[in-house]
Every structure is written in structure tokens, then in C-alpha cells.
Write a structure and sequence with these properties.
The complex is a heterotrimer. The radius of gyration of chain B is 20 Å and the shape is globular. Helices cover about 30% and strands about 20% of the residues of chain B. In chain B, the strands form three sheets. Chain B has a ten-stranded mixed β-sheet with strand order 4-3-5-7-1-8-14-13-9-10, sandwiched between helices. Chain B has a two-stranded parallel sheet with strand order 2-6. A two-stranded antiparallel sheet of chain B has the order 11-12. Chain B folds into two domains: about 15-245, Peroxisomal Thiolase, Chain A, domain 1 (3-Layer(aba) Sandwich); about 260-405, Peroxisomal Thiolase, Chain A, domain 1. The longest helix of chain B has 16 residues, at about 85-100. Chain B is built from twelve helices and 14 strands. Classes of the chains: A mainly alpha, B alpha/beta, C alpha/beta. At the B-C interface, helix 5, strand 4, helix 6, helix 7 and strand 8 of B face helix 3, helix 4, helix 5, strand 4 and helix 6 of C.
Chain lengths: ~80, ~400, ~350
């Protein structure tokens, strides 16, 4: 699980071009959106594509993303449970 | 630029003396009107573009194929017209004919056209062939957004003031606005204004990434709306200084009486919760027209059927019109969202509403949005219509409104 | 007629124009096919949260705009008007290539969102929370001139007192090579490098001590070489000028066969005038005339002409009126008259 979390942090930083962040800046339970990492609705769409492409998980409604993308912990748990690749 | 005739402080009114349109619901003004009156949508399955999303989208395609458009326009075989240019010239020619212009040079005439996609339909087909395939290299120079406008200008013989506007989905409304301002200022005597955009894989996939496309027919202003249908179209209006139109006994279809442009400055793609940009655009247009809100008889809304736009626009309409909301409808369920052309398509429909004295229906509506409770006009409705307000909003917060009037 | 005064002028270009103290720029080596811009440190102007999605052109535009506002001591303009011939070609190429490479699957929204032509104007507005009039022109080599005409018109209508106007172009990575390929396949093609840049101006209807005034601007879609001579005569007389009163004329020569438009004008109406060029220092691109206007402004402000720009005849001070004439491939002609 910790490996997946690290992987996710690296991917998020790279995919969303968060140049000012390193993996150590992101705590597992930090809020990804709003006050935490400061991600927005466009980032949510980017992450939906990442879920599909890298883990074979398809979210069809952007609203579902809100639940799944709460924090690295929540996201990692969700992926572990639903991944098809 | 030099003023042409009058340079007095009281500027002249701007008359609409011709229009032309090609859209999913018809290849002429007449055909578009017939579909509007019969409440017949032009949206359906995609047939002219190969895409893996074909089962999951509905689009408003123009029925004519490129070869048919080329033959209608008598183009030589080696032409490098993109579909955007073909649609644009087709509609612009109808507008000029409709305005009974015999000699385009008889008055100082300009062209202001709008497009977002430009020559993308050819670029996306040939990008990887450009380097080696001489047969498609002619489309390298037709990619840029100004190309379709230049082709239309050259074909119509307009040689002086020609330009292109691209403010996403409010583009054509801004073209109409600028044309109107230049006539009022005496910089031009006549101007052809409008927009053209063809469907493309680029936009289909773009809106797909934003999860903004419905798999079904779009449902503007419905509580259960789930996205837009893309469309393609071109539409143009001929605007003339009123004294000239009157002197030549032109039949005047209407007037551009108000216009407003503002930016929502909220988000690159989404509209703000309070619809501030839309609110400001409508307020500015009303101020220019000197009309009270109660004088607006019909709103042709932007109404794309995305969850965000329709809520934000509804809030803005309520802020402007308070409890006296005029009849309103979105005609996007007829044509699809035609992007840069939308403002011109809907300006043509607004003029038709003035001429026919009918509000065109908002198709596919069942349930009002709970937050605002607004109910659009869902059946063709005859009524006295003197002033129509038409909204167009785009990515980048670009919001524009025009008001068209009968007298 | 209301004035249209340049309260600030900022340019990012292939020269060190953003930070330069001196404008005595050198000619670009013509062995280079593409002249990339000398970029300022964008972090000084754009917060990381905003810049992470921005391609080169958006960064250049937003930064040049911000600096122009700073120099003019203006917080909120009454309008933001931009011009760009190719728009956001970098993100356009990126999205297009991912469509092709992934056969329409796994596409992400950012390059699509950022590919629309109005991204620069929109991002400036967003950064300033500026809800004012906002427009974007995309008409090839008249994109910037169209923006200027719109701005002058807003002044005339009393709809604005201060307007931010700019032109921006980025080279991109792929499409420009196809354009270059076509150019170099003929010996009649463009001889200066292809360039990029962003030039932004705060224009005001209010005069300011020493400010340069954009007197008049005219665009012509299509004209013959002789038409241009006739149109120039009319343009001058509309502005109560004769060619002797023009202290310098700046041509848009780029070395292609259509330079005959400039040569024709130079040898008829402006034989005795100081004749200048700028594309040898900036490269050619659709909104390069904004760089031309930037240089013309600096020339009037500093009363100095970079030697690289001089084509013919030396100059006499004071430099008061400068005329600019540009065209691209024999069409989209523009005349601009500025004075101090």
C-alpha cells in the first residue's frame, strides 16, 4: 500500500505539473483539493484519466471523483479495491 | 480608419438587411425556419467524421458533404477550402444575396467572421502527411483561423476591413458587436458579420475530456441535463447604416439595438455560481439599447445543457430580470452547440423570431432546475415580439449579449 | 478624434527586449531557421498554481501584460484585447498528437482547454479578476492591428480610458516546421528566421507627458502594389501629412518576393525618407507588427535608431512622426502612424 501511495504522489506531481511540490510535501491524509494541495476541477478530470489509463478504473461522472480524490489514503484504498490493471 | 460619411455625435442605427445560414436543421434561412416551426431537431448520430466515440455522442451535422459544398460554390478542383471555409462561404453568400447587394463595392463594406477551429478539420486528417505528401500540403496554410475569413472576403470581393474574432463560444456575438460599433461610428457603411465552425475530432475529443458531452439529445435548462451536443454551422448577417438601407429601399429585417461584452474572470472553462460575466454582458447590452428589462419579449439563451452553464445562466437571468422573466428558450437542442458560429446562428433565429412573431421552443425540457425554478418556452408560442436578447458565453469567461429589435 | 497614447510598452522577443536598458539590438543570424524568444523569469510574474498549465505563449502574454500594467501604474484596465495569428499552437499540437498517438483514448483536458485562441486574454483577465470588455483577434498578420482598431474604437465610444492591448505568438514544435519546409522549398520564400514573442501596451485616451500617440491605423485585406501607393497617399492626406513630414518609415521586409510591396513604396513616396526594418532582429510571425510598434515607440522615446534597423538614409532629430507599413504574402496590409 505504501508503494502505491508513493507512486500516486509521483504521478500526481508529474501529471499535474506541480513543480513546487515533492513527494515528501504531500501527507497521505492531506486534502488534495481546496485548502490542501489546491487542486481544482480540471485536475479532477486529469486524475480520472489517470485512473482509467493506469489502473483500468472508469469513472463516468466527475462527481464520483470528489469522493475518490479526497486524499492519497482514500485514493490508494479505492484503487487497491477496484483496479483491473 | 477614416470616417466615411457622417461624423456627428448622434450615430445612426444599424439595420439588418440580409442573413444566411447553414446548420444541422437546414441549408438556408428558409429551411432553418421550417425546422424551427416544426420543432424538428437536426441532431443525430455522427456520419461524416470517423471517431471511436461515435456510439457515445450525438451531433448536429450539416447534411451536405464537402464535395457537395464545393460544387455548390463552383470551386476549382485544386482548392484548399477546409470545411469551416466551405460552410462559411456558403452562408455568407446567402446573406449577401438576401440583402440584394449587387455591387459589394458600392459602399464601404467590411467582413468580421468568427471561428474557433479554423482549418483544424484538415489539419487533424493530414498532420502526419504534411511532411511528405505534396497533395495535402496545400492545407498547411489553411490551418490558421484567419484563412476562412480571407477566403470568404475574396469570394465576396471585400478588400478593405476584414478580420477574425475568436473568443470561444461567444465569438460570433463579438463579431456582430464589433460590426455594429464600426457602423455606428461611421467607420463602415456595411459589414458582413457572423461565424463558422465545422465539427472536428479535435473538439469532439476536447469536450469528451471535459465530460461535457451528452450521449443523448441535449436537454437545455432541464434538471436532468447531462451535457451538450456539438454541432457545426455557419451564419452571417448583413448590417448596414440605416440611412443607406432606407435610401436604397432595402427591406429591413431588424436592428442591432444593444450589445455587451464582459468577462466572468472566474475559471478557464466553468462559469461562476452567480453568473457575474453573463449578468454584466446583459446589463451592458440593455444600457446600450436604452431598453427597460420589461421590453425584452424573448431571450434566446446560450443554454448549452451542461450542468454548469444552464444553472449559471439561469441565475444571471434572474438577477437581471428579477421576477419578470421573459419567455426564453435555448435552440441548441435543434442545432447542437456550434461553438464560434453559435452567436450568429442564434442571431438569425432571433431575427426570425421578430419576423414570425413566435418564440421557438426549447426542446427536450421536462423538469425545472430546482435552484432557480425557471421554465423555458417548450412549445412554439405566437406573441408580440419587438426585442430579443441573445446570449453567448465561452471558455475563458468570455460573455457577450446582443439585443435585436424589430423597429 | 480621441488620442490613443502609449502609457507603457513591453516586449518579449528574440532580443533581450524585456529587460534591456539599450535597444541597440543585433541582427539575428539568418542561418537560424527559428529564433526563440529570450524568456524572462516567469516565476517573478506568474504564481506556480497558474503557470503549471501554461504553454510558452500564454506565459509570454501574461507576463508582458503584467509588466505593461506595472509600468503604467495601472491595476485594472477597462478592456483587454489580444491578437494571435496561430493562437496556442503548442497545446493545439499537444492535444492533436495525443489524439493521433492514443487513437482518441486517455486524453487529458488541459491541452484542449489551453488551446483556444482566447486563452491569453482569458488568463490575463482571470489573474486580474478583470470583468471588463475582453476580445481576441485571430486574423493572421492583422491580428494585432485588429486589436488596436478595436481599442481605438472603444476610446472613441467613451467606453474605456485605459486598455491593455497585445500581440502574442509562440513557435510551437511541429506545425512551424511544415510552414518552414514550404517556405524554404522556394527561393522566393521568407529569408529571416521564424520568430515568436509577446508585445503588450497600456493605451490610454489620456495624454501623458512624453507619451507616444497612435494617430491612425488602417488595414487592407487585398491590394496591388499600385493600390498600396494610392492608399498610402490617401492615408497621409487624411492625417494632414506629406511624406516629407514622415521622419522614418518602418517596413516589414522579410526577404520574400513580396518585399516588392515595400520597395515600390520606398522608391516612389518615401525615396528621401529614413527607411527602417525590424524583422531582421525579431524574425517573422503573425503578430510581429506588435514588436514593430514596440521598437517604433522606443525610437521616438529615446530619439535613437538601432543601426541594425536602418535600410536607407540616415536620420535627423527630432524624430516626431513614424509610419509603419506591414503586409504578409502580398495581403493583409497595415498602415500605422505614431507620433510624439
Amino acid at each position: 500500500m505504501n508503494e502505491l501511495k508513493l507512486e500516486l504522489k509521483e504521478k500526481i506531481i508529474e501529471q499535474l505539473n506541480l513543480e513546487e511540490f515533492t513527494v515528501t510535501d504531500i501527507d497521505d491524509d492531506d486534502a488534495l483539493f481546496g485548502d490542501g494541495l489546491g487542486l481544482d476541477s480540471i485536475d479532477a478530470l486529469e486524475l480520472i484519466v489517470m485512473l482509467d489509463k493506469d489502473y483500468g478504473i472508469q469513472l463516468t461522472d466527475p462527481k464520483e471523483g470528489k469522493e475518490v480524490f479526497q486524499s492519497i489514503t482514500v485514493l490508494a484504498n479505492y484503487i487497491a479495491e477496484h483496479r483491473t490493471k | 480608419m477614416q470616417n466615411t460619411e457622417q461624423n456627428n455625435s448622434t450615430s445612426c442605427r444599424v439595420a439588418i438587411t440580409g442573413m444566411g445560414i447553414i446548420s444541422a436543421i437546414g441549408n438556408s434561412v428558409e429551411e432553418n425556419l421550417a425546422s424551427l416551426l416544426k420543432a424538428e431537431t437536426g441532431i443525430g448520430s455522427i456520419s461524416q467524421i470517423e471517431t471511436i466515440h461515435s456510439e457515445n455522442i450525438k451531433v448536429g451535422e450539416v447534411k451536405l458533404l464537402n464535395v457537395e459544398l464545393q460544387s455548390h460554390l463552383n470551386l476549382p478542383k485544386d482548392n484548399n477550402f477546409t470545411r469551416t471555409s466551405l460552410l462559411g462561404l456558403y452562408a455568407a453568400k446567402e446573406a449577401v444575396k438576401n440583402a440584394e447587394i449587387e455591387d459589394i463595392k458600392s459602399h464601404k463594406t467590411g467582413l468580421i467572421s468568427a471561428t474557433t477551429i479554423g482549418g483544424m478539420d484538415k489539419t487533424e486528417q493530414h498532420l502526419k502527411q504534411f511532411e511528405t505528401d505534396a497533395a495535402v500540403q496545400k492545407y498547411i496554410n489553411s490551418h490558421h483561423a484567419g484563412d476562412s475569413t480571407q477566403k470568404i472576403a475574396d469570394a465576396l470581393g471585400i478588400t478593405d476591413f476584414v478580420t477574425t474574432i475568436s473568443t470561444a463560444c461567444s465569438s460570433a456575438t463579438n463579431a456582430i458587436m464589433l460590426g455594429t460599433r464600426l457602423i455606428k461610428a461611421g467607420q463602415l457603411e456595411r459589414v458582413i458579420v457572423g461565424g463558422t465552425d465545422s465539427l472536428s475530432k479535435f473538439t469532439i475529443n476536447g469536450f469528451k475530456t471535459l465530460m461535457l458531452q451528452s450521449e443523448e439529445l441535449c436537454k437545455p435548462f432541464d434538471a436532468n441535463r447531462n451535457g451538450l451536443n456539438l454541432g457545426e454551422a455557419a451564419a452571417y448577417l448583413v448590417l448596414e447604416a440605416e440611412p443607406i438601407a432606407k435610401k436604397e429601399n432595402k427591406s429591413i429585417l431588424g436592428y442591432v439595438s444593444g450589445y455587451g461584452n464582459a468577462n466572468d474572470a472566474f475559471h478557464q472553462t466553468a462559469s461562476s455560481d452567480d453568473g457575474e460575466g453573463a449578468y454584466l454582458a446583459m446589463q451592458k447590452a440593455l444600457k446600450i439599447s436604452n431598453l427597460e428589462t420589461s421590453k425584452i419579449d424573448y431571450i434566446n439563451a446560450h443554454g448549452t445543457a451542461t450542468p454548469n452553464n444552464d444553472l449559471s445562466e439561469s441565475v444571471a437571468i434572474k438577477r437581471v430580470f428579477d421576477n419578470n422573466i421573459p419567455d426564453f428558450s435555448s435552440t441548441k437542442a435543434f442545432t447542437g452547440h456550434t461553438l464560434a458560429a453559435a452567436g450568429a446562428v442564434e442571431a438569425v433565429f432571433s431575427v426570425l423570431a421578430l419576423q414570425e412573431q413566435k418564440v421557438f421552443p426549447n426542446l427536450n425540457f421536462k423538469t425545472e432546475i430546482s435552484e432557480t425554478g425557471l421554465i423555458p418556452t417548450t412549445k412554439l408560442k405566437p406573441k408580440n415580439i419587438n426585442h430579443v436578447l441573445s446570449n453567448s458565453f465561452g471558455f475563458g469567461g468570455n460573455c457577450s449579449t446582443i439585443i435585436l429589435s424589430k423597429e | 478624434m480621441k488620442g490613443c497614447y502609449i502609457h507603457s510598452a513591453v516586449s518579449i522577443s528574440a532580443q533581450d527586449s524585456f529587460d534591456a536598458k539599450s535597444f541597440d539590438f543585433k541582427i539575428l543570424e539568418n542561418t537560424v531557421e527559428k529564433a526563440t524568444a529570450i524568456h524572462p523569469n516567469y516565476r517573478d510574474f506568474i504564481p506556480p498554481a497558474a503557470s503549471r498549465r501554461m504553454a510558452t505563449g500564454v506565459k509570454m502574454g501574461v507576463t508582458a501584460a503584467k509588466r505593461a500594467l506595472q509600468l503604467a501604474n495601472l491595476e485594472q484596465p477597462d478592456a483587454i484585447i489580444t491578437g494571435s495569428g496561430m493562437g496556442c499552437i503548442e497545446d493545439t499540437e499537444k492535444f492533436l498528437n495525443s489524439i493521433i498517438a492514443n487513437n482518441e483514448e486517455f486524453l487529458t483536458p488541459t491541452p484542449f482547454i489551453q488551446s483556444t485562441h482566447n486563452t491569453v486574454g482569458a488568463q490575463i483577465a482571470l489573474g486580474l479578476k478583470c470583468k471588463a470588455y475582453n476580445n481576441t483577434f485571430v486574423h493572421g498578420s492583422l491580428s494585432f492591428e485588429s486589436a488596436l482598431i478595436d481599442a481605438k474604437q472603444l476610446f472613441q465610444e467613451n467606453e474605456a480610458q485605459n486598455i491593455l492591448v497585445g500581440g502574442v505568438e509562440e513557435l510551437g514544435k511541429e506545425f512551424v516546421d511544415y510552414v518552414l519546409m514550404m517556405e524554404t522549398s522556394s527561393n522566393q520564400g521568407i529569408k529571416v528566421p521564424f520568430g515568436e514573442g509577446a508585445s503588450f501596451f497600456v493605451l490610454s485616451s489620456e495624454p501623458k507627458l512624453g507619451a507616444v500617440n497612435i494617430h491612425d491605423i488602417e488595414t487592407i485585406s487585398l491590394a496591388s502594389e499600385n493600390d498600396i501607393i494610392e492608399r498610402m497617399k490617401v492615408f497621409l492626406s487624411n492625417n494632414n501629412l506629406t511624406s516629407e513630414k514622415v521622419d522614418a518609415i518602418i517596413f516589414g521586409n522579410n526577404g520574400d518576393s513580396f518585399d516588392s510591396y515595400y520597395n515600390n513604396l520606398a522608391s516612389t513616396l518615401f525615396e528621401e525618407n529614413t527607411q527602417l526594418q525590424y524583422k531582421n532582429i525579431s524574425g517573422e510571425f503573425y503578430t510581429v507588427s506588435a514588436f514593430g510598434l514596440f521598437m517604433a515607440t522606443k525610437i521616438l522615446e529615446e530619439q535613437k535608431i538601432p543601426s541594425a534597423m536602418l535600410i536607407k538614409n540616415s536620420f535627423k532629430k527630432p524624430l516626431k512622426n513614424i509610419l509603419l507599413y506591414n503586409q504578409f504574402k502580398g495581403r493583409n496590409h497595415s498602415f500605422m502612424l505614431i507620433s510624439k
